[in-house]
Amino acid sequence: MSTFGTLFRVTTYGESHCASVGAIIDGCPPGLPLEAKDVQTQLSRRRPGQSNLTTPRDEKDLVQLQSGIEHGITLGTPIGLLVKNEDQRPRDYSETDLYPRPSHADWTYLEKYGVKASSGGGRSSARETIGRVAAGAIAEKYLKAAYGIDIVAFVSSVGKVKLPSVVSPPSQVGSEDDDVVEDALAPEFVELLKTVSREQVDAHPTRCPHPETAERMTKRIIRAKEAQDSIGGTVTCVIRGVPAGLGEPVFDKLEAKLAHAMLSIPATKGFEVGSGFRGTEVPGSKHNDPFFVKEDGSMGTRTNWSGGIQGGISNGEDIYFRIGFKSPATISQAQETAQYDGTPGTLAARGRHDPCVVPRAVPIVEAMASLVIMDQLLIQNARKTALSLLPAITTLPPTMVKPTASS
Ligand SMILES: Cc1cc2nc3c(=O)[nH]c(=O)nc-3n(C[C@H](O)[C@H](O)[C@H](O)COP(=O)(O)O)c2cc1C
Q: Is the pLDDT of residue 180 over 50?
């Protein structure tokens, strides 16, 4: 379906080659100062044609706010957002009238709907994500203003070129003995999660905030492009300042909502939160995050292998996760494949395509993270308000309340 969220509800519309793409956002709180430029900043980070590492399709992606805002203030009514598709070239897709692109969505969309959009994969085009990015920018503005929440995503790998995130003692390399497994989040990576800013991320066209690694990533993307090929990568996202208590176990655990949101982005192939798959190799004695009281008196954890979520509920630590994006399917290199009617043949796709999607995926990941956190905050606030309206229960047994220092 094209709607995401429960209380902060976003419906996106549009395909690659229709008149416009956009979104309707229902449930945005009234009274939020909002201007087109708040949304435009993120749309411009997503737009094609930003550098030689992205598709040359020339779209300005200028947003038009249609409703739900007056005098720069949200009204609490549905917000309509629209971006025109201006640089369509459906003729680029003439081969794909005959051939479904291998590993794209052309064949499955036609099987499902029985009719085909001129661009082939219809709604699977990354143009659809404009509506998400615009809606996410609005959610993000509220999260920042009301809670000081900060969301930053960055490119953490391209092909095999990786931002170093884990240190493993040399003794461990190749060892199968659990007791010597002591890998840990590299201090550099932990620091990066705490401090990384969008300015640092945008300082390099790859959107990797580690200049040396960014240069190596550039070379990898250019190599793919020159070979008329493509390459995948990962995006890591950190959400700072989320209060404890968000997430709706059991089916709507916070990590499940984030995974749902992230895996709905085109070209995603994997999601891991906190220690992720790496955590399976670290014994519990090393992997547990011990509690301690922070300087401000609040409870915190010394390490954060959990990625800020325990039992499907935020624990107040930074939430961080990683998403894997495949190598884009559309490549100009000739591929032996079959036409829609089964006739074998060779497809060398024309058109303008991203050799690697991760630099442009960064604001999309931030947007989806904003939508999840916004929705979960509104849900938790509704629960808290409902509780606060009840007369206080004074007779709870001690096992039902938080012990105090004196008890
Ligand atoms: C920012 C972004 C840009 C993309 N650009 C392209 C592209 O130029 N060519 C392409 O084949 N796929 C591109 N994709 C991926 C397709 O939208 C997607 O892979 C395809 O529809 C198949 O869907 P699936 O990979 O989710 O199964 C892009 C994805 C994103 C997130």
A: no
- Cα(51) to centroid(ligand 1), Å: 18
- Number of domains, the chain: 1
The conformational region for residue 168 under phi > 0 = left, psi -120 to 50 = alpha, else beta, is beta
The answer to whether residue 201 sits within a structural domain is yes
| Residue 406 within any structural domain of the chain | no
User: Which helix (H) or strand (E) covers residue 198, if one does?
Assistant: helix 198-202
Task: Look at ligand 1, atom 22, and give the residue with the nearest C-alpha.
Answer: 104
Question: What pLDDT was estimated at residue 177?
Answer: 54
Range of the domain at 320: 3-400
The closest-lying atom of ligand 1 relative to the alpha carbon of residue 360 is 1
Residue in 238, 224, 387, 401 with CA at minimum distance from that of residue 309: 238
Catalytic residue, from 38, 61, 92, 104: name it. 104
| Residue at 213 is within a domain | yes
For the purposes of burial, counting CB atoms within 10 Å of the CB of 11, is it exposed (0-12), middle (13-18) or buried (19 or more)?
A: middle
Please tell me if the CB atom of residue 323 comes closer than 6 angstroms to any atom of ligand 1.
Answer: no
Q: Do the Cβ atoms of 106 and 156 come closer than 8 Å? A: no
Q: Which of 106, 289, 318, 354 is catalytic?
A: 354
pLDDT for 166: 63
Taking residues 307-319, report their average pLDDT. 98
37-51, 123-137, 387-401 — most confident range: 123-137
Q: Which atom of ligand 1 lies nearest, measured to the CA of 331?
A: 11
Q: Is 252 a catalytic residue?
A: no
Q: What pLDDT, on the 0 to 100 scale, is given for residue 116?
A: 87
pLDDT at 169 over 90: no
Q: Is the CB of 214 under 6 A from ligand 1?
A: no
Asked, for residue 407, whether it belongs to a domain, the answer is no
What CATH number did the domain enclosing 359 receive? Answer: 3.60.150.10
